[in-house]
Amino acid sequence: MSTSTLNAGDVMLKLLNVESAYGPIRAIRGVSLQVRKGEISTVLGSNGAGKSTILKTISGIIDPRKGSIEFNGADITARDPAVIVQAGLSHVPEGREVFPLLSVRDNLMMGAYTRKDRDGVARDVETVFGYFPILRERATQDAGLLSGGQQQMLAISRALMAAPQLILLDEPSLGLSPKLTKEIFEIVVRINRERGTTILLVEQNANMALNASDYGYVLENGRIVMEDRCDVLREKDDIKEFYLGMKEEGVRGERRWKKKKNWR
Ligand SMILES: Nc1ncnc2c1ncn2[C@@H]1O[C@H](COP(=O)(O)OP(=O)(O)OP(=O)(O)O)[C@@H](O)[C@H]1O
Ligand SMILES: [Mg+2]
To answer: What is the C-alpha end-to-end distance of the chain, expressed in Å?
Structure first.
């Protein structure tokens, strides 16, 4: 984890007082956060806290009612999702959303559809096969035949194929066993370290997220209630109690990942 002193020039993504709603439901309110270049930042929160809404608002799937979003110094508030991808920001949505009737390789190529550098694309296919060798084995198979964990690997890989500067990662642990979750997190950290890709990760699995990330925000009922470097957050009593109290193998922890939607 990098601990260097950072200045304002290092901020890649900046949300200022963002509010998004679904009809009368105000899902996030006055959310301000920053993601520093080269770091993994995380937003922790329980079911319905507004985590996915934050990511959807950043990637242009929903337009905020208030506030602004800056990416590399440019205002991307409410821009078209395709424009935002083109600017270097890829979103791995909750529940992966791979194209089930396309092959694994074609799913990867969909991620690269805006790129003209064919050699670079071919190299990146090899890179993601290096991270997730099972995807090479299954390259010609329909993505719908992959297990949940493999689909998560494919979704992350497809995002990488756009050669993004920033990846928005929505609950990669969703519906996965603790072992598979650990494997996926290890690769996410490698992608950050080896490629220098900046990552904004939202998670209910505070334990995994705090260990993998540099900086963290805690979201409750659509509002950020706490933020700090993750090594500091891990030591805070209320974080330990409310978020880390659920041990991965413990009764509550087990129930927590089993009750999740999209269990596969
Ligand atoms: N399409 C929608 N229509 C109406 N309300 C929605 C919609 N999507 C989300 N919400 C509501 O907005 C709030 C925030 O939802 P969001 O999906 O952002 O939470 P989350 O933190 O991602 O939760 P989870 O951990 O369950 O994925 C919740 O109250 C939710 O019920
Ligand atoms: Mg969500």
So the answer is: 32
The 10s digit of each residue's pLDDT in 31-77 is 999 999 999 999 999 999 999 999 999 999 999 999 999 999 999 99
Angle (nearest 5°) at CA 262 between 258 and 263:
35
Ligand 1 atom at shortest distance from the alpha carbon of 222: 14
The verdict on the CB of residue 49 being under 6 Å from ligand 1 is: yes
Determine whether the shortest distance from the Cβ of 94 to ligand 1 is under 6 A.
yes
Backbone angle region of 50, left / alpha / beta, with phi > 0 → left and psi within -120 to 50 → alpha:
left
Cβ-contact 147, 116 below 8 angstroms: no
Distance 143 CA to ligand 2 centre (A): 22
pTM as predicted: 0.89
Helix 148-160 with 104-111: angle, nearest 10 deg: 30
Is residue 163 within 8 A of residue 124, CB to CB? The reply is yes
Q: Which ligand is nearest to the CA of 48?
A: 1
CA distances from 197 to 45, 53, 76, 178 (A): 23, 22, 19, 24
Contact 89, 71 (CB under 8 A): yes
